[in-house]
Amino acid sequence: MDENQLHEAVAAALKAGADAAEAVFAERQSLAIGVREGALEEVEREESRDLGLRVFVGKRQATVSGSDISAEGRCKLIERAVAMARLAPEDPYAGLAPKDRLAKGPLPDLDLYDDAEPSAESLEDQAREAEAAARAIEGVTNSDGGSAAWSTSSWRMVTSDGFYGPHCASAFSLSASAVAGEGSGMERGGEGRSTRHGADLPGAAEIGAEAGRRAVQRLNARKIASTTAPVIFENRLATSLIGPLIGAISGPAIARGTSFLKDRLGQPLFAKGVNITDDPHRVRGLGSSPFDDEGVANRKTALIEDGVLTTWLLNVASAAQLGLETTGHASRGLAGAPGVAPSNLTVEPGDRDLAGLMADAGDGLLITSMFGPSLNGNTGDWSVGCSGFWFEKGEVAYPVTEITVAGNLIDIYGRLVIGSDLELRGASNSPSLLVDSLAIAGR
């Protein structure tokens, strides 16, 4: 669908009885190849084109979506949306974004689209090379496979207030997973990367070799006794510790009063010198976009500045409920009202690398894998299953497994020491993070 057809859909919704309307067209293509033990195992191809419509009748709203974008299909979708809105309960905070907050051209060029479409054969070659490199590492005994994928997506949005915004992006990914050891002593390790441009991906052999090394490093993992000790969260997964912060400062959680940080705005939450930013305009960023999903102009935002919590993450509805203005963090699919999400979240680096953090801590736990997190959203009490390495006198001693770490996030955040080993691997990135003391449950 082009811009004119989206404008026509919005106009048709108004003619059918809507007071305001918003139309979104999303188109996606993807190709994914998987290999295992050197043989082709999976080929997936996807092509989709969908229309989403959100309409308002007074303070009542409804959203619908469908893949039939013919003239007849659009008419049915519009009729259904308006009929649903008339029956919906009133929402005093529902509405389109204020006109003065809408993004205006020219939109920033974020270099998110690579027009080079790889062939299935080239993706298969990459996946094979990654898997072969993983299997070549001494100590690797089997493989969970290698995979390579490519996708493109485009998003066009029109509102009855006159906004039109196009947005397109590509993605290239490559991964491998290896198995080391035998029987009950088997351990797995993996490595994967995703980028907007194919040229930015690390080499397949590099990815595969890292997957193999990480599996072998896990061999002969021990169970340890319960204790209290310093804990370091490796940079690859450290944002998992920051994830609950994002949920706790989201406008909907604050408006509902269900956040453990609901009374902490403008107060110190981390140590002085800690900064966490969100930047939707990072060039080639995996979370980048020129406007948010309500058409609002977005910008780089300091969430934590010198340790202080500076803002909530707000869309139009949650901002209205709190008597504030949207921060440009609306996020939505084609169905359902917008929610809230960050774009490119970054914990800004400190001045100590991982070796320096381990040296500072002396003896403790380096976490390299996490699973099954549990959070009490009202209190901040948090626990997570994990595995990793025990270190002594600042040096890795042996791998450990089947352990749980726990604590209260307000206390944890206040004592975090930020490492310097930041790598921009995804939409959320952090250097390694040290907590000087955490409860560790073992055998």
UniProtKB/TrEMBL annotation:
Residue span(s) of domain Metalloprotease TldD/E central: 115-219
Q: Which residues form the Metalloprotease TldD/E C-terminal domain?
A: 227-442
Q: What name goes with this protein?
A: Modulator protein
Q: List the top taxonomic levels of the source.
A: Bacteria, Pseudomonadati, Pseudomonadota, Alphaproteobacteria, Caulobacterales
One Pfam family name is: PmbA_TldD_2nd
GO cellular component: a single term: cytosol
Instruction: Report the Gene3D superfamilies cross-referenced here.
Output: PmbA/TldD superfamily
UniProt GO molecular function: metallopeptidase activity
Region called Disordered, residue ranges? 113-150
Pinpoint the Metalloprotease TldD/E N-terminal domain residues.
Answer: 21-85
Source domain of life: Bacteria
